[in-house]
Design goal:
alpha/beta; eight-stranded mixed β-sheet; two-stranded antiparallel ribbon; 20 strands; about 30% helix
Length: about 475
C-alpha cells in the first residue's frame, strides 16, 4: 500500500483524475457535470502557492532504483541484489540500508516509482529526462554536435520569468555533461541564448567554484570597465540583435554583482556546515568516466558532491530561481555501474549522495526555504532488474524512480508502483513529460502554455500532465 491514501485523494482530486472524469461523457456525463469537471481540473492546478525556486540534481549515468528507493526484497537474488531495506519515517515505506540519513527524512519527500520512457542510451535518455521531450530520430549517443531543440526546465522557467530582472535566472554546475559532445538538453534550445544557464565551473583540488567568463583580469579595473560600457552605449544602435544587447547588459550586471560573487564563495560557510554536506575519503583528481579516475590520488576532504549542493543552496538563497547540479565526473565514480554495481554504490555513490542530499533538505528547512524550494533528484533512467555477469546492472528506462522534496510536496507520498521485479510500471505510469509539467505547475506556469521556435511554430511547453496529487 502506498502513502497516497484514499481519503486525501477523495478530498483533493488530481488534475489527472479530473481529466479522466471529463472523458466519461460516453457514459452519460451531462454538460453541467462536464463543465464542473473541467473547472475541477483547473482548480487543482492552481491550488498550491507557486514555488520560488527549484534545485534539480541530475545523477547522470542512471542510479539503480532497485538499490535505492524501490527495493524488491522478496524477488530472486539476481534481482534484489545484496542490499537490505530499512524502515523510514513513513510507515511501510522502505529504502536501501546505505541511505540511513535520507531514511529519516522520507516524511519530507515524495517518490515517483513509475517513470518510464523508451531511450536506452545516455544522451537520448538525458534529452528526454531534462526537457520532457524525446530526441527526434533514432535512440543514440551523440558522436557529432547536435543543436538543442526543446528547452531545459531551467531555461523554460527563465523564459517565463524573463521580466523579473533578476541577475541570474538559471545556473548550472559544476560541469556540463557529455559523452563526446555536450548533451543538447542543458540550455535554452528554441528559446535562445538568453535562456541559457550561467555555467559555474569547479576546481576539485581547491574545492572552489567560479564563473570563468566573469573573472576579471588583474588590469581590468572599474575605470576601464566603465570606459568599455560607454563605448558599448555608443555603438549599441549598430547592434541589430535585441538579444545580444540584453546579453551584454546582463554581463555587465553580473561583473558588478557582489551578491553573485559572495554566493559563489562557499568558504563563507561555517566549517561545520561544509562538513555536514560531505566529508570523507575520496579521489582528489577528477576522472573522465566511471572507471578508475585516471590516476586520481585518494585523500580525506570535503567531497564535491556535497559542496555542489551547498553552492546550490547558496544560489537559491541569493534569489536564483532554478539551479541544475550535474552529478557527473565525480571522484572518478559515476552512476553508470555496469560493473560491480553493489560495490560502486555502497563504497562511493550512496554514502555521498545520502549525506549531501539529506544535508540540503535539512539546511533548506532550517533556513525557511524548503516550502518554497522544490528539490528534484533523478537520473536519465534506472538499471536492469537482473544483475549481469559482471555483477553490474545495465541501462533500464522502462521503469525508474524520481525523488521530490520540499516545494509543498505531500511528505511520504508514493506515486505509482513498479511490478514485482521493478521492470515495468504496474500502476500510474509517469513520463518525463509529466515530470516536466509538475515542475512548471509548481512555478505557477501552465504546462499547456505555448512556446515557439525560430520560425514561429508553436509547441506546448510540456507534453504531459502535472502530478498534482503529490502536493
Amino acid at each position: 500500500m502506498t502513502a497516497k491514501t484514499k481519503t486525501w485523494i477523495d478530498e483533493h482530486p488530481s488534475r489527472r483524475a479530473a481529466l479522466k472524469t471529463v472523458g466519461a461523457g460516453a457514459l452519460g456525463l451531462t454538460l453541467p457535470a462536464l463543465l464542473h469537471a473541467r473547472e475541477a481540473a483547473k482548480s487543482a492546478v492552481k491550488s498550491k502557492p507557486a514555488i520560488r525556486s527549484c534545485i534539480l540534481i541530475f545523477y547522470y549515468g542512471g542510479p539503480s532504483h532497485l538499490d535505492t528507493f524501490d527495493m524488491k526484497p522478496s524477488a530472486p537474488v539476481e534481482v534484489r541484489g545484496e542490499f537490505n531495506p530499512i524502515a523510514t519515517t513513513v510507515p511501510g515505506l522502505q529504502v536501501c540500508e546505505h541511505l540511513p540519513r535520507l531514511s529519516r527524512l522520507m516524511h519530507k519527500t515524495a517518490l515517483i516509482r513509475s517513470v518510464h520512457h523508451n531511450a536506452r542510451l545516455h544522451d537520448s535518455a538525458s534529452i528526454h529526462a531534462l526537457t520532457g521531450r524525446p530526441l527526434e530520430g533514432p535512440d543514440r549517443e551523440l558522436f557529432a554536435p547536435l543543436p538543442q531543440v526543446f528547452p531545459s526546465f531551467g531555461s523554460a522557467v527563465a523564459h517565463f520569468h524573463r521580466d523579473d530582472r533578476r541577475e541570474v535566472q538559471f545556473a548550472s554546475l559544476p560541469f556540463t555533461f557529455r559523452n563526446v559532445h555536450d548533451v543538447p538538453c542543458q540550455g535554452g534550445g528554441m528559446l535562445g541564448l538568453a535562456c541559457d544557464p550561467l555555467r559555474i565551473e569547479a576546481d576539485p583540488a581547491a574545492r572552489a567554484f567560479q564563473v570563468e567568463v566573469l573573472r576579471r583580469t588583474p588590469d581590468l579595473q572599474s575605470r576601464r570597465l566603465d570606459d568599455r560600457r560607454r563605448l558599448l552605449e555608443q555603438i549599441e544602435p549598430q547592434i541589430g540583435s535585441r538579444t545580444m544587447r540584453g546579453l551584454y547588459a546582463q554581463a555587465y550586471r553580473l561583473l558588478e554583482s557582489a551578491a553573485l560573487q559572495n554566493s559563489l564563495d562557499i568558504t563563507r560557510e561555517p566549517a561545520s556546515v561544509r562538513d555536514r554536506y560531505g566529508f570523507g575519503a575520496e579521489a582528489i583528481a577528477v576522472g573522465e568516466g566511471g572507471g578508475g579516475g585516471n590516476g586520481a590520488e585518494m585523500g580525506y576532504s570535503r567531497h564535491m558532491r556535497g559542496q555542489s549542493l551547498l553552492l546550490a543552496r547558496r544560489l537559491v538563497e541569493a534569489g536564483v530561481p532554478f539551479v541544475n547540479v550535474y552529478d557527473f565526473r565525480q571522484q572518478g565514480q559515476n552512476w553508470d555501474a555496469h560493473f560491480k554495481c553493489a560495490n560502486q554504490h555502497k563504497k562511493h555513490l550512496l554514502p555521498q549522495a545520502d549525506q549531501s542530499l539529506s544535508a540540503l533538505i535539512e539546511d533548506l528547512e532550517a533556513r525557511g526555504l524548503l516550502d518554497s524550494t522544490l528539490v528534484v533528484a533523478m537520473g536519465e533512467f534506472g538499471r536492469t532488474p537482473k544483475i549481469n555477469r559482471e555483477a553490474g546492472r545495465d541501462h533500464w528506462p522502462d521503469c525508474y524512480t524520481v525523488l521530490f522534496a520540499g516545494g509543498g510536496v505531500r511528505g511520504g507520498a508514493v506515486y505509482g508502483a513498479s511490478d514485482r521485479i521493478g521492470a515495468f510500471p504496474s500502476t500510474d505510469p509517469v513520463t518525463p513529460g509529466d515530470v516536466a509539467a509538475t515542475i512548471y505547475w509548481r512555478f505557477g506556469i501552465d504546462p499547456a502554455s505555448e512556446i515557439h521556435d525560430q520560425t514561429g511554430r508553436p509547441y506546448r511547453l510540456a507534453d504531459g500532465n502535472a502530478l498534482t496529487s503529490m502536493f
